[in-house]
Predict the structure.
Amino acid sequence: MLNIGIILGSVRQGRNGEAVAHWMNDFAAARNDDGVTYELVDLADYNLPMLGAEVPESQQQEAESTIQAWSEKMASFDGYIFVVPEYNHAVGGALKNALDYLKPEVANKAAGLVGYGSLGGTRAHENLRLIFGELQVADVQTAVTFSLMTDFENFSLFKPAAYHENNANGMLDQVIAWSGALKTVREKTAVNA
């Protein structure tokens, strides 16, 4: 069994990402991939403090609990699909901060990218690929890129063009294949440890 997390990587009020993440989750689930489960995870549900920032003593226990919950949730998956907007030609700060809390939880796992923005989030994807390299996450080639100009009515009502389904299928096929292969690597490493 492969467990794939679909990570909504924006915490912005009024974000378009909710519609995109739900579309991706519904699309993935409708494929009925044998031996694969999908779970939508909303980064907004984790009020992570800024890594390295001082947390008031009265909030330390809550912060530690949130960090632990985030770590355990991300560790529970064999692969990921990150749904990300592009902010200023990069990934948003909340997701970057959340990823900075992780390393062994995500190492030797696969990730696919779904973006949205003026250029479909492609520059955020490029930025994430660099981060994934350091985290030892194998990002797959095919990505899904939604344009704010053509896939959102008035830049807010999500109406994706049908052709995105081809990329979504290709990306999911790659995430499943790589997640399965890397699960074998992790299991072999655990046995030899």
Remarks:
- The two ends are 23 Å apart (CA to CA).
